């Protein structure tokens, strides 16, 4: 397979859904940064809707597994960050419409 790209990573993460909200983590705006080096190693910055999010470990485990299953992937580093703090304005317009 060809190189891993940020687009491939983002597409894979659209299958990870926040179980409390029912929206994927990409459309929720939880993905802050995707960096791919050497076409295979992934560094990802992700946040949660709150530092007290009860499903943080579930989401992080799902993200790690999904990325490790990508064809041709090398190292996967998932970094949980809190800056900037997540706000509801980070939700995509499409996902917002789904919440109504």
Q: What's the arrangement of secondary structure elements?
A:
Layout: H1 6-13, E1 31-37, E2 41-46, H2 56-68, E3 76-80, H3 93-99
Parallel strand pairs: 2-3
Antiparallel strand pairs: 1-2
Walk me through what this model shows:
By secondary structure, the protein is of the alpha+beta class. Helices cover 28% and strands 18% of the residues. The protein has 3 helices and 3 strands; from the N terminus they run αββαβα. A 3-stranded mixed beta sheet has the order 1-2-3, covered by helices on one side. Strand 2, helix 2 (56-68) and strand 3 (76-80) form a beta-alpha-beta unit. The longest helix is centred in the middle third of the chain and has 13 residues, at 56-68.
Which properties best describe this structure?
100 residues
| CATH class type | Alpha Beta
> How many helical elements?
3
Report strand %: 15-25%
Helix and strand content put the structural class at alpha+beta
Major β-sheet annotation: 3 strands, mixed
How are the strands of the biggest sheet laid out side by side? 1-2-3
Q: What is the string of helix and strand elements?
A: HEEHEH
Distance between the termini: 40 Å
- Overall shape: it is globular
Average pLDDT, to the nearest integer?
Answer: 94
CATH superfamily: Fe-S cluster assembly (FSCA)
Which stretches are poorly predicted, pLDDT < 50 over at least 5 residues?
A: none
Number of spatially distinct domains: 1
Work out the helicity level. Answer: 25-40%
Q: What is the fold named in CATH at topology level?
A: GMP Synthetase, Chain A, domain 3
Number of strands: 3
| CATH architectural label | 2-Layer Sandwich
Rounded Rg:
13 Å
